[in-house]
Fold:
Amino acid sequence: MVSTDLDTAAFALDDRRPKAAFAPATDAEFAARLRACDASGEAVVLFGGGTLQGLGFVPERYDVALSCARLDAVLEYEHRDLTIAVGAGCTLAALERRLAAHGQFVPLDAPRAAAATAGGTLAAGWLGPRRAAYGRPRDFVIGTTVALADGTLAKSGGMVVKNSTGYDVTKLYLGSLGTLGAILRVNFKTLPIPAARRLAIARLPEATRARAAAHVAALAVEPAAALIVRGFADEIDGRDGVDGRMLLLFEGSERLVARATRELRSALGSAGVPETQLIDAGAGAAFARIVDAYVTSRGRRSATYRSGGLPSDAPLRLEAFARVARVNELELESIEDARTGDVIARVSAASEEAFAERLIAFDGERRTVLSEARVVAAPAGARARLDVWGAPPASLATMRALKARFDPNRTLAPGRFIGGI
Amino acid sequence: METSSAERLRERLSAVLGAQGILTSREDLGSYAFDAFCEDRLPDAVALPRDAREVAAVVRIARDCGVPIVARGAGTGLCGGAVPTAGGVVISFSRMNRLLALDAANRRVRVQPGYVNLELSRTVASHGLFFGPDPSSQKTSTLGGNTATNAGGPHALSYGSMSAHVLGLEYVDGAGEIQRADIDDAGYDITGALVGSEGTLGIVTAIDLRLLRLPRAIRVCVAAFPDVESASETVSAVIGAGISATALEIMDRTIVGAVEAHYHAGYPLDAGAVLLLEIAGEHEDVEYAEGAIAKLAREFGALSWRSAATPRERDALWASRKGAAGALGRIAPNYYIQDATVPRTRLPQAVHRVNEIARDHGLTVGNVFHAGDGNLHPLLLFDRREARQVAAVSSAGHDILAACIALGGTISGEHGIGYEKRETLPYVFTPEDLATMQRLRDVFDPARHFNPDKIFPSGAVCGEVRAPRDPVAAGA
Structure:
C-alpha cells in the first residue's frame, strides 16, 4: 500500500484515480519523489491547478500524482529589471497581482487564472488571443528549472532578457503536457501594463458579419485581440446570443485607445452594425471570462475543439465545423480569432444521450476536413474514442526519440501525448 | 584527413553536386577557414548545395566518410561558430539564398538559409511589413546564421531575438533525412529547440519567419551624457518606469569618436557617452514616450537632447551605430568584441567593472551596447603583433565574462558560444544542466557529425586561448 499525503480524488483524470498524491515542498524533494517513482515503475501525472488536464489522452498508466501546489513562491522579483521568477505552482492570479503592484504583466491569457498555475499553463502549451499583439507565452519564458524523470535537476536560460548561452531546452518542456520533465521554476520577462484598456462588444447580425470583419481588419490601430463569437452567451454577457458578437480589445495609451474607439465606431457603423458596447472598468475581467469560455463545457453534453492555422483561412475552417455539426445535428458555438487564426468550436446537443450518440460520428467526419483540430474539452470517458490530437505532424518520429531520451522508462504520463507518447 | 580519403570525399561530393557545387582548391578553402572571431584549419571541401535534397546528400556522404559537417552563412559570427576546427565539409549557403514564398496577408515568409537579413526587410517594406531582428551584421549576415545563433540586434529590446520570429524550419538531421517542424504543430516544440543550437543539431534548409507591421511613427533621438554610468542609469530608469522604447543603445566616448570620424552622423564629441534611442508605434505613443524619456534623461544629467528631423538623419544615426565596430579600425589595428548580458539594473555596475578590468590589463576599451536589454559589447583594442597585448585581451575577456556572471548575468546575449566560449560554459551551467542539453543532441545527431568542438566544453584542460583575428566587416 502506497502512502499518500493528499486525497487522491482531487487528482482523478476522467475515471482514473492515482494510488497516491503528493505535493513536495522543495525542488529537491520533488526530484527525489520523481526519481523514486521512476525506479519503481510507477507512472506519474504532474499537476498544477488541474485547469487544463482535459488536454491529451488519459494516460495509459497512472499511479502517482505530483502536485506543484506548494512550489508557489515568488522566488525573485527585481521589478526594475522587468523579470520575475516563480515556483511552478504560483497561480496566474497571484502572479498577476504581484506584477500589477508594479504596473507589469505577462500576457499568458489562460483560462481560470485563480486556479491555473504558471507551470501548468506552460506545460499545457496554452496559447491565448493576445499573442498576436504581445507574443506567445514561450517568448516570455527566459529560463526554467526542471526535474527529469530520473530526478536530474536541470536549468536552462537565466534571469536575463537576451540569452544565447547553451541550448534553449526550455522550449521542449513548454507544451509537453508533463511528458518530458516537471517544470519547477519559471523565469519570466514582463511587460508594462498599458495605460488604457477598452473592450468593445458589437452585436453582429449575420448580414453584417463579412463587411464588419473586413473593416476591422483594416483598422489603423490594431486591436490586441479581435474575436468573432457565436453563442457563448452565458460567458460573455448573459444575453441571448442569437446574433454573433464581435469582441475587440484595445490596449495602449489613453489617446491611442480614444482614437481606436473613434475609428472602430466609424468602421462598424459603415458595415451596418447596430450597436457597440464599450467596457472600460472591468475590461480585463470581461476579457478573462471570454478566455475561460475556451475550455468550459455544458456538462456532459458538449465537447470543444480547437483549430489553429492561418488567420486568412479561419473562416473556412469555421465553416467546415459548421457543416459537420449541421449534418450530425449538433449545435455549434464558436470563437474565431481574426488576429491569430484560432477557431474554437463547441458542439453540443440538448441531452447527454443524444450528444454521446452523435459526437463519435461528428469526430470521425471532421477528421477528413479538419485534421489539425484538437479536442480541448470532452465528457469523461469520451477522450479515448476521439482523435484528440488531430493528425500527427511529420516530426512525430523525432518526438518519440525525444521522449525516449528524456523519459526512457515512460514514467511521465505514459500514453497521454500525441501518437500515444 | 589523409589525401586519399579526402580525394574520395571530394569525388563523391562532386558526383552529387557537380563541378560548380564544390570548392577544393587551397585558395578557395582558405576563405572558409575563418569567421569574424578566429582562423583555423582548412576544410577538406566546401559544398555549395542548391536545395535540401543536395544538403541531405552532402550530410550522408560526410557521415559515410566520417568527417564533420559545418554549416556556414556569411561568416560574420563572432565566436568561431562556423570555423571548421576539425576539418571536414563546410556547407555554404551562397546558392540557397532566395526568398521562397511571401504571405503578406498572414505576415509570414519562407526563405532559404542563405538569404541576407537586411534584404528581407527591404523586400517586404512595400507590403507595410518588416523583419524584427536586426544584428549589426545585417547587411551581410544570413537568416540561417541568425537562426543558428539566436541573433538579436538593437531592436531585440522590443521585438525579441530570432527565437520569437522563427515559425518553422526545414532541416536535415544527423541521419541525412529532411525533416520539418512548425511551432504550431501539435507536440514538442522542435523548432524552438533548434533555434540557437549553432549548427550542432541539424542543417537548416528553409526558415518560416514572422513579419511585423511597420510602425506608423518612428522617432530617433540622441542624448549626450557626462559618462557611461549616467547614461546607463537613465536606461535602467526608462525600463523600470515601463516606458516603451524600441531600442536603447549606448556608446562611450571612444566609440563615438571613432564613429564620428568615419560617418559624420552628428553625434556629440564632447560627451562621455551618448544614448541612441528609438521609439516606434502610433503617433500618440511616440510623442508621449519621447517626452517621458527626455525628462528622465535630464534628471540623470543629460547634457543635450536631439531628435532626428528627417528619415535620412535617422538612418545616418543608425548606420553609424551599426558600423561602430568597423569604425574602430581608425584607432587600433585590431579589436576583440565581447558579448554578455546582465540584469538591466546591473548595467551601470557591469560597465564600471568592464572599464576597471580593461584598465588593470593596460587595454583601451570602447563600450557600445544594447543597454535596454542589459547586453554589453565591450570592444578591447589591441595590436595582434604584440604578443603581450594578445594575452592581455584574452585574460580581460575572460574576466569580463566572470564579472557579468557574478552580477547575475550570462556569457552570451546574441552571438552564441561557438568555439570561443565553450570552456566558459561550465561557469554558467552545472554538469547536470549540460548533460540535459546533450540529451537533445543525442536525439538529433548522436554521432556528433555536426559542428564538433562548439558550445560544449572539451572536457580537457582549457587549451590555448585563440588570438582574435583582424576585424572583419562585422559588428555587435
